[in-house]
Amino acid sequence: MHECNAKDLRDFLNLYLVEKLQAEGRGFPDDFGDSCDLLLSGVIDSLGLVELMTALQERCGREIDFDALDPEQMTKVGPLCDFVADQMERFPSSEKLAISGGSLLV
Amino acid sequence: MQLSATQPGNRESQTKVPNRSDQCLWTGFLRSAERFHGRPAVIVDGKTLSYDALRGLACRIAATIQSHTYDAQAPLTAVFAYRSPVAFAGVLGSLLAGHGYVPLNRTFPVHRTQVMLERSECQSMVVDMGSLPQLDQLLPCIRRPLLIVLPDLEDPSRLRQQWPMHVFVSSRDLVPMNLWRQPSVDPDAIAYLLFTSGSTGIPKGVMVAHRNAAAFLEYMVDRYGVTEADRLSQMFDMTFDLSVFDMFVAWEAGACVCCPSQKTLIKPSAFVEEMGLTIWFSVPSTAMFMKQLGMLKPGRFSSLRWSLFCGEPLPVSSATAWLQAAPNSTLENLYGPTELTIACSLYRWDPLRSPAECERGIVPIGYPYPDMDVLVVDEALNEVEPGQQGELLMNGPQMCLGYWKDPDKTAAAFVIPAGKNEIYYRTGDLVRRPVGKAPLTHLGRTDFQVKVLGHRVELGEIEAIVRDASGLEGVVAVGWPETAGGYGGVEVVLEGAPRDAAILRRSIASRLPEYMVPRRFHFMDRLPRNVNGKFDRPAIKGLLDRGLCTSATRRT
User: What is the mean pLDDT of the segment spanning A79-91?
Assistant: First the structure.
């Protein structure tokens, strides 16, 4: 299992987005800043967000309960990484998470 | 046999028209405004507008349009506004001016908005503050003078200076409500003109008449027993015709329509609870996303009494997961192309009976609305036997007027099948003709239209634009990746030497909405062809499925 503190998650997210944009033949910045809104800046669409969240869960090796994440913050790099790191710290065992069913995407 | 049906008058004699000559899209709103003055009509952008407030703003917009436009030949007003009070007041204001409305969307590329605005020949446009940056990009491309109404902008001096050709009316200059004149009702006039993806590269304008919309609303309000106590979701953008349900079903009954922000659209779970929604209406993809992100917790959406889905095939798995979260609601799957006015068939989910009625893991599209007729035909438009597959044709009071200024496309899609003497619309959807009382089941498309997250996408339109942008002739677009009910996006395979994908993408993204922009470009020396020499789409799709195209992707 990978380290899942906020910094590691930022690095992971950065790499994930760069690879995604490269594969799509799109340009990308050197670093997606904490306040970068991935949805409003057009980096990802709604399906892209679900894929990204799925990738984050795979990275962390378990499901994350995104339900508590504020919709206005969930598409911003900093708040998203902080949220996931916080969830990992507060609920180190996945049994403690309230997870509703469903397999992961696509 | 085909018949041109561009003139509303032609159609009048061809379809069953109920006696609703007093009805049009806006009469229900005015009736509710008379009864429910202070009750909420819309909650949007953190603001609640009562029926009085919404009527006041809409009437001032309408009076402004009436006082500035003289050309009776320009019966349409564009609404360039997004999830704001002005968006709702703009739609109503256009209608109350006696015009049809043409919804525009600032999340679309400016070029596409320009095409819609020019093709519709609108001479007036209502714009909200949030769309001003896009307006500045749009106006250099517009050659006709426009009346531009800005109901939430106080000072338009900068715009007046910069664009002297156009007339700008700010919030301070709106014409008073008492000068508004209620327009005469023509049930055959266009209520809204909605552009959908067109296979030849240019969006098609679907003309929906007041009587089409009135027939739809009457059935829906009655079926769902909507009252002033109801709260409806507004998940659909106004450029998606399903938004007409949200607004006008609510207003017909004095209910409130609750409009989430662009971001809340992706994660609407808390929104359902906070707003106390009673009627939910979205594309199935939204339910699928919510399920995947763990938001469909059992019993969570206890306020919902109706859960409605439309726009793309509804997977059984999404329906059952949703019902666990909304156990007090009845779930219905609606079906309908824009040309048949929002929705024209539906299926009520029954936990006991339904699983046996589903095909391919997809919920049936059910039964036509009471006044709509169904015909399932083969390629020669002859009716197929019960139990056989064929293209779905429909007619009835919800069949639209045809395509705006496009008699050829209208004639191709609105036809009189052999042995019939009425015009039917060819949906292009493949269904099974029911045996006995079985529901209609949706089996796919007969053409190259796909659903991307509920949006209707003609692959031919994307191919035309990619051909133009790349200079390559061999271009095949395919829906990819496949999701339970449609596709997550579109990918393109090109025949020829690789082009710079970044430049290609930029050029295409400036002309198509995000959901239509190919996610990846793959270049091959030669595309697979079938025995007729046509591109072998299944084979190309197979290459993508097996990941064999990826190596050909041009990386920047």
Answer: 87
When pLDDT is averaged across residues B5-18 and rounded to a whole number, the result is 37
Residue B152 has what pLDDT? 95
pLDDT band for position B312 (cuts 50, 70, 90): confident
Spell out the residues 6+ positions from residue B98 whose beta carbon is closer than 8 angstroms to its own.
B66, B75, B183, B184, B189
Instruction: Please say whether the beta carbons of B116 and B165 come within 8 A.
Output: no
Q: Does A17 touch chain B (CB under 8 A)?
A: no
* Domains in chain A, CATH or no CATH each: 6-94 (1.10.1200.10)
Instruction: Say yes or no for a CB contact (<8 Å) between B267 and A99.
Output: no
Cβ contact (<8 Å) for B321 and A69? no
φ/ψ of B191, rounded to 5, equals -85, -45
How large is the angle between the packed helices B85-96 and B51-68, nearest 10 degrees?
50
CB A39, CB B514: distance < 8 Å:
no
Share of chain B above pLDDT 90, in %: 67
- ipTM of this complex: 0.73
The Cα B258–Cα B297 span in angstroms is 22
pTM of the model: 0.85
Q: Are B296 and A100 in contact (CB under 8 A)?
A: yes
Dig out the tokens for B101 from the structure: 């409305």
| Facing B556 at nearest CB: one of A25, A67, A103 | A25
Q: Which domains does chain B have, with CATH numbers?
A: 224-335 (3.40.50.980), 449-552 (3.30.300.30)
Identify the CA nearest to B261 among candidates B42, B41, B46, B113.
B46
Interface contact B505-A26, CB threshold 8 A: yes
Cβ-based contacts of A40 with chain B (< 8 Å): 262-263
Å from A7 to nearest chain B CA? 23
Q: How close does chain A come to B254, measured CA to CA in Å?
A: 29
